[in-house]
Amino acid sequence: MTTPDTTTELPGDTGIRNRAYRKIGWRLLPLLFLAYVFSYVDRVNIGFAQLQMSEDLGFSAAVYGLGAGIFFIGYFLFEIPSNLLLQKYGARVWIARIMISWGILSALLMVTQEAWQFYLIRFLLGVAEAGFFPGVILYLTYWYPNARRARATAFFFTAVAFAGVVGGPLSGWALTALDGAKGLYGWQWMFLIEGIPAVLLGIAVLIWLPSVPAKAKWLTTEEKTVVQDDLSAEDTAKPVHSTWAGLKDPKVLLLAAIYFCFVLGSYGIAFWLPQVIKGAGVSDFLQVGLLSAIPWSAAIVLMVVAAKSSDKTRKRRLHVGGAAVLGAAGLFIVSAAGGGHLILTMIGLVLATAGVFTALPLFWSLPTAFLAGGAAAVGLATINSIGNLAGFVANYMVGWITTLTGSTTWATVVLAVVLLLGVGLMLKVPSKLVDR
């Protein structure tokens, strides 16, 4: 996959300016992309582990749902402090710390034998990973003005879908091919081999990732100047700068509620997609993994196309809302299939995954349009931490409804309705504030 062309023409563009942003794209985005791939693999591989782990350890769907979701409690509690520490110590050091610690803890899930161990390690994993995603979103504001940022953010966010494309088959292979090797279950091998790359990438970040353009040795003095001029002019025009205003601003809280709705739908898909495919009649774990790659592949295509259109037209709300509506429609199709029709289920999953996971990266063009400075650090972390509480709600809710009803059908309907609620709330965001 190539990095996006973020050289959108701006007034006064020069060859120096375009060259600077092209260098930034090639130097930063591939490493951040790989980091997010393994962040998401390590966050949602629990969905594949459930296929085998629950039976091996005797965990019910409710126990699994609580364990999968408790990650987000730790994530919520440490999100804002983590982003403030990123500002203090710099992106290079703090992002590396996050990645190394989460990789170690993700691998430690292989020692789980009791429910309390499962809960504890998942909680600590949330603490360790807190701040990574909003930290990177904040980090991108140090390098890209808003007119160029949506495509850079979307490229970074395609890592989620790419993680599904490669993580599904990899997890399915580990569950089947390695089950019993060296006396370990397949799910234990899966946690180990998918946790190690995060540690190695964290070390790479520490070595290669500059915190700000001024410290990028691969930019010339002229290139650093034009980038800083773009960023300074944009920050001056943004209405919210004060650090704690990013926590108290009503617009930030509204966006947090919208993001909560979208994230609830996304984790309902990400954590339970393997179970939905299995419920549609696919029993082989490797086949489940291969089929799960199809919706994620569709999501990659739609993310890139929609981000390019969003940057070109600047109609941010329309693109975010349209993608979320598509996701809700896909979930309704999945619920209508009722687990009895594989083809219909897969069509629904393709639409749902592509829609929801396109809405999420495009969403971040909304708060970054009006938050700057310390307000951006706190505001972005606030939105992401509140929004990601939906990960806890989604997993516990889907697990509880599945245990109660014996299927994921009604849980899928609830997820679709919540997505539409998020679209309704987004209509309250003034277009003049974010459509730029």
* Overall body shape: globular
Which percent bin holds the helix content?
over 70%
Structural class: mainly alpha
Mean pLDDT: 83
Cα radius of gyration in angstroms: 21 Å
- Strand % is under 5%
Largest sheet: none
The count of helical stretches stands at 17
Q: In sequence order, what are the helices and strands, one letter per element?
A: HHHHHHHHHHHHHHHHH
Distance between the termini: 28 Å
Number of strands: 0
Low-confidence stretches: 7-12
Brief synopsis:
With 436 residues, the chain is mainly alpha-helical. The protein has helices at residues 15-44, 46-57, 61-89, 91-108, 115-129, 132-141, 146-177, 186-208, 221-237, 245-248, 250-279, 285-313, 316-337, 342-363, 373-405, 409-426, 431-434. Helix 2 runs antiparallel to helix 8 (186-208).
What can you tell me about this protein's structure?
This protein is an all-alpha fold. It is 80% helix and 0% strand. The longest helix is centred in the last third of the chain and has 33 residues, at 373-405. It is globular and about 60 Å long. The relative contact order is 0.16. The model is unreliable at 7-12 (pLDDT under 50).
